[in-house]
Amino acid sequence: MSGRLFAIVPAAGKGARMGAALPKQYLSLAGRTVAEHTLARLLSYARIQRVMVAVAADDPYFVRLPVAADPRVHTCTGGAERADSVWLALSALAGEAQDDDFVLVHDMARPCVRLSDLARLSAAATAADAGALLAHRATDTVKRAGDDGRVAATLDRAQVWLAATPQMFRCGLLREALTAARRDGVTVTDEAQAVERLGRQPLLVECARDNIKITRPEDLALAAFWLRRQQEEAGT
Ligand code: C5P
């Protein structure tokens, strides 16, 4: 496959919605931290040459994890918003990654991503002209709310997808997209949104339902359940 592949993992969030003493990526999940599960998944995908983890400036935890000593794992300081952390990580990769290389951005808070989904995304993004992202089809009927808390519209469910990560792009395209969003003062909530603002259309790749983002306390138990199911499936 053409183009080397780098990974960026934004992990500089405080995880305020978890209401925990530690940031959510350092909470315990099936005997390891969430961060170790997530990074083990990415490191098991051999095409990834380097994983750049964006950590908060005052984070004392990451460096203590065994995975921090892996030679493929590097760190940089993250920023105020997720998009700032990704942009800083991309800047930290600038010496190594060429415009034609690929970068895959994955939330540290998604420890259950399957290797098979990584491989499908990688193949799709390599062939696509504007990158690709893992996503879930909406299964509920989706309402758009007005400011008054009433339903303003019902969206066509067949056309609604929920963006997940990883999201994968050529490094040059992602750099151009994030730089433009910063210049325009727009805080994007995922990388695809920044690319869309350039008038480009990233490809949606449907992923397994278990690629959940740990956001609220109950999500930890759900992630533990999915990891157990995956182990059973693998016969381990
Ligand atoms: O808050 P949310 O769950 O959307 O965060 C998604 C990912 O972005 C998390 O892994 C979080 O640590 C990261 N993040 C970051 N820098 C920020 C805010 C969030 O790297 N300023």
Explain this structure.
This protein is an alpha/beta fold. Helices cover 30% and strands 23% of the residues. It is built from six helices and eleven strands. The strands form three sheets. A seven-stranded mixed sheet has the order 5-4-1-6-10-7-11, sandwiched between helices. Strands 2-3 form a two-stranded antiparallel ribbon. Strands 8-9 form a two-stranded antiparallel sheet. 37% of the residues are buried. It binds cytidine-5'-monophosphate. Residues 10-13, 25, 54, 78-82, 85, 107-109, 213, 215 line the site of cytidine-5'-monophosphate.
Radius of gyration: 18 Å
Q: Please give the count of helices.
A: 6
Form type: globular
On the 0-100 scale, what is the average pLDDT? 95
